[in-house]
Amino acid sequence: MSFVFLFLFLSLCCKTAATTCEEQRDQASQEGLVGAFVPECNADGSFKPEQCWGSTGYCWCVNEHGAEVPRTKVRGKPDCSKKGVLSFCQSLQAIIVNVPGWCGPPRCKPDGSFEEVQCCANTGKCYCVDKEGKKIEGTEKSGQPDCESVTSKCEKTRLEALAKGPLLGQFIPHCKEDGSFESAQCWASTGYCWCVDEKGEKRDGTTVRFEQPNC
Predict the structure, then answer these.
(1) On the CB side of 72, how many CA atoms lie within 13 Å of its CA?
(2) Where is the Thyroglobulin type-1 domain (predicted)?
C-alpha cells in the first residue's frame, strides 16, 4: 500500500508543466467545439511541424512557437522539411492578422521580399511600396497603381512633394522620361536654379538666380 502512495506522490509532485502546445491542445479538447482546430504535439510537448485542421482539409507548417509559416497552407500534406529564416515581410505576414480598421498583413513575393503593390483591406485602396515595405506617398488609389513607373528616387521624391498638396512655394524636383533627375533643378517661387548629380544632390557652386545654370 505504501508503495502505491509513494508512486502517486511522485507522480503528482514531479509532473512537468504543460507546454504551450499541450495547453492549447487540452483547452481545445475540453471546449469540445465541433470542427474546432486542435493543435498536434510531439511526445516532448513541442508543436509538430505540420498542423492540420481536419474539418477544413487544410494543413500548414508551423515554427517552434506554433505560428503558421506563410505560404505553406495547402489541402493535403505540406512539405515542412525546408526550414529557413523568415524575411521581414514574411515575419510581418505571420504576426499581423486581419483586424477591422487595419490594412491586414502585407503581401510577399515567393523570395520573401515585399510585393510592389500593397492593398488595404478595410479601404479597398492600393499603393506602391519600396524595398523596405514603406508606402510611397502619392501612389495610393482605388484599384491597382502603376508601380513600375515609380521606381526612381526622383519620381518618388516628386510624388511625395505633390502628395502634400498645393503648398505655396514648395520645391518639386524635375525628372527625365527615364526617371532620373534633370541635371538642372529650379525652385520657381524663389527664382533659384542649380545643378545636381545623378542622386539629385546639389553640386556646390552651381546655384544661380533668374537664369539657367550651365550643367
Answers:
(1) 25
(2) 18-80, 86-147, 151-215
Q: Cβ atoms within 10 A of the Cβ of 47, count?
A: 22
Distance separating alpha carbons of residues 169 and 87, to the nearest angstrom: 42
d(CA 54, CA 208): 73
- The total of other beta-carbon atoms located within 10 Å of residue 84's CB is 8
DSSP string for residues in 84-129: -PPPHHHHHHHH----TTS--SPPB-TTSPBPSEEE-TTT-EEEEB
C-alpha–C-alpha distance, residues 85 and 80, integer Å: 13
pLDDT tens digit sequence for 92-127: 887 776 656 667 889 888 777 888 899 987 788 999
Q: Helix (H, G, I), strand (E, B), or coil: what is residue 31?
A: helix
**What residues contact 127, with CB distance under 8 A and at least 6 apart?**
117, 118, 119, 120, 135, 136, 139, 140, 141, 145
pTM exceeds cut of 0.70: no
Residues 133-179: tens digit of each pLDDT? 888 877 888 888 888 766 678 877 887 777 665 566 778 898 887 77
> What's the rounded Cα separation, in Å, for the pair 167 and 128?
23
101: nearest Cα among 73, 74, 120: 120
